[in-house]
Amino acid sequence: MLKHINMKQLTCLLLALAFSLSLAAQQRSANVNLIPEPVSLVKNGGHFALPQQVTIQCAAVPELKIATDLLKEKIGAATGSFVNQVTHSDKTPAIRFVLLAKKDETLGAEGYQLSVTPQQILIRANEANGIFYGVQTLLQLFPAEIESKEKVAGVKWHVPCLEITDYPRLGWRGLMFDVARHFFTKDEVKQYIDAMVRYKFNLLHLHLTDDEGWRIEIKGLPKLTEVGAWNVKKVGTFGNFTPPAANEPRNYGGFYTQDDIRELVQYAKERFVNILPEVDVPGHSLAAIASYPELSCTPGAENYKVRSGEQIMDWSRGAPPIALLDNTLCPANEKVYTFLDTVITQIAKLFPFEYIHLGGDEAPHNFWEKNEQVKQLMKREGLKTIPQVQAYFEKRVEQIVISKGKKFMGWDEILEGGVSPTAAVMSWRGMKYGIEAAKAGHNVVMSPTEFAYIDYMQADEATEPRVYASLRLNKSYQFNPVPAGVNPKYIIGAQANLWTEQIYNIRQAEYMTWPRGFAIAESAWSPADKKEWNDFVSRTEDHFKRLDLAETKYSPAIYDPAIRVRRAADKSLSVELTPEIQGLDIYYSFDNSTPDRFYPKYTAPVAVPKDASLLRVVSYRGKEQVGRLISIPVSDLGKRVGK
Ligand code: ACM
User: Fold this and answer.
1) Nearest partner of 524 among 422, 455, 580, 451, judged by Cα
2) 177 and 207 in contact (C-beta within 8 Å)?
3) Which stretches of the chain score pLDDT less than 50?
4) For the domain that residue 160 is a member of, what is the CATH number?
5) Contact 361 CB / ligand 1 (< 6 Å)
6) What is the CATH number of the domain that holds 630?
7) Exposed site from 9, 305, 321, 388, fewest CB < 10 Å?
8) Which of 133, 151, 166 is the last residue of a domain?
9) pTM greater than the 0.85 cutoff
């Protein structure tokens, strides 16, 4: 065919080829690894080179302060460039923020447009929230070293030329942080907020009370924090600790004063994060009962202590659990509603967010079933079942919340026995209760265990603190918070939940949150059709570098295979190793030595040799070890599948 074209045509063809090759090379060199993926991104070729003197031009609006401060701080620390901020400039400023005088309907309150040309970086938005998210995106467009806390030499501080238009799928993009099981200080909560806003989360749900601690000062109820905030320090595997002896010091824990709360609320607000407070009642209330035993209707409650991780529930028959002691507030005692009125009045004043979460999950029924006061309540109110007793409790609590000008939210158990139509539901036992609630016209936040429980193990139990379930990144990434067949207007949010029974410190809280938080952020922010697993993995790996430099911990579990054990009819064991991501080779040994890439490569399920006592596994990408060395005694493999 070529022999029929003339010289002019050939030149054109070659020029076109050269142009498309150079465009492809530019796009490759300008790697863009944004999380969450934006709505629309057009790369234009070329780049903006950061000058030594950087001017940020923006209006003198207080809400823009954090966005400019963040950019100044990051650029200043990592690049050594001098950054100044002006409201007007005769010369073209390097970076410009514009709050649109004429609102752009598509962008809404949180969207932004980011335009990078060789001359300028321009972020436009309707509101300061959008500028803040534009800045978060911009930081992700710089080389990863922008996250360094010290000046990095030898980096070309280039930003690829492009046009981004971006806005969120959902207005509630949440992370729940359980500060009750283990207390996390005010500064640690701020650190958690700093990490979440990089990924455009805008809601922090603080689980403030539970059996293990009451974490918020309530005026007039001093024992909640004198007694309820403290337990006995135990280290190891939470849940089955030996019950503390009477003389063991109860000095582990802490609480936030009301000033602390105001400071946290303000810190979050400046970063466009709402804080949703949760007081978990009527179950999960041992810390409150240990402080004020009259809140219980079970004799002997005056001897109850704040839980230190010893067993208090029997889960062997599933939910609701059988309580070994009564950790519920008494639904038949008026003092309980007076107590909750005091608590909710103060919480309503401290937290400006429209919702207050009152828990409602996992309330055991076995003490209520036997209780005379509860029986009388049932007779008086015509309640036929114990779930109806809980529904009675929830409705009364909702009335208190409404009387303080707030909206009521609870875990999906509040649907059992009937709930008022204005109650909002946080669906955790899968998506199905959320779907049911949305169909009944309730507002719903989806935070189902199967995709969004980031306290679950994210890799094999050989490398993780033991939790009763697992959730790998690829599963989290499949989260679609707005299921088909449901009116999307009722799905107000998506959220991941970090319970901290097994999380003793902020580093582990970060490890559990990232990278699964990336998956939840993208599920809540990005259009569903923009999600693509392999692409997400390569962006995730770029963000690992960023988190390393930012000194935020994350889990490298994607490099470790899932390990599945089978026992054959002849009782012999075999092991199946499944990589989570593409392009990895897995090597293993049964001879107690440490495998490397010259060891047997895994290709198909392997039989465990009869006399082997240890399986070791490691993953490589080419010549580089990327996975952790995993060592599992064969006796443990056997236990996983029984005899
Ligand atoms: C829950 O996980 N119990 C809400």
Assistant:
1) 451
2) yes
3) 1-3, 19-29
4) 3.30.379.10
5) yes
6) 2.60.40
7) 9
8) 166
9) yes
